[in-house]
Design brief:
The protein is 27% helix and 32% strand. By secondary structure, it is an alpha+beta fold. The chain has one domain. A hairpin with a 5-residue loop joins β1 and β2.
Amino acid sequence: MIAIAILALFFATVFPSNSKTSWMRPESFHLKVGMNRAAAVKALESNGWKTKRGDSDGQLVVDYADDKSITLHFRRDRLDSIRFELFTILQDAPVAFEEERAFLRGSLGKPRMGTKRILLYDHTLPNVMAVLSADPKSEQARKGVGMVVVRYYDPAR
């Protein structure tokens, strides 16, 4: 039994996923928009994730990795939105965004609005918005950093 666990760990580290965005899913963290705060915190902590206070009382942040974070926003003690943030090399950001575009199209269909930098799915609950920040003239891009943000949210809250 231990040998199987060690072998699984070996393969997981030897063959890392090429996906930049597969972690950007609420179900990966056992989260659902609308769940209460205590249940959301318990779901994260029971899977080993540490939360810290965000910019406001209604926010919690999970530092997933050096280049990845999750921001949870609560309103009236309910999870109102889940924002996944990927910071990457400027040239890699559009590739990651296209990967996310393909996933969202496959799982949610055609977006109501879709451009080269923004996708909006407001015909499903929760609503989903994906944004690419890779404008070479922006201050962030001048530092060589691009960003992909995917937000799952309740539009009525």
